Amino acid sequence: MYQYICSSCGAEFSREHDRVKQCPHCGSIWILISYFEDGTGINVKEYEAIRSNAEADRKVKLQCPDCGNIAESYGHIKGTYCCSCGGIPLALVVEQPLELLKQYRKRNRLSQKLMGWKLDISQNYYSDIESGKRPVTPEVAQWITKNIAG
Length: 150
Ligand SMILES: [Zn+2]
Ligand SMILES: [Zn+2]
Prior knowledge:
33% of the residues lie in helices and 19% in strands. The protein has 150 residues and is an alpha+beta fold. The protein has two domains: 2-92, no CATH class; 97-147, 434 Repressor (Amino-terminal Domain) (Orthogonal Bundle). Strand 3 and strand 4 (40-42) form a beta hairpin. 25% of the residues are buried. One zinc ion binds at residues 6, 8-9, 11, 23, 25-26, 28.
């Protein structure tokens, strides 16, 4: 028996097979399958996380690194594709992009110049972002989502 949970509406259902692609309640493609194989629970932790979020009505924000579309869900299913453009797997939205950016640079001992190069902006521009003189652009936010968060 395969147990399913929908991370969009929180509905749970079970089937004899693992081929369900959409939630029968809301049509969302963001469904997680949990089952046991050789006594090993597959996706059990993720399943429980989504279930407890659904019970508490606690949603997380997910962003598509491809088109920038933001969606809400009860959990982050790894490898979930964007329902807007079908693009590369969604990542958790970064709540504090600047902090993550600074931490990432320090942890990896990178210069501001190298960070600028990675982000395809000048060193000065990068330094302005870190010091808060310029905002984190959507492009930079997307880079963070893709490379640091999620
Ligand atoms: Zn659903
Ligand atoms: Zn997208």
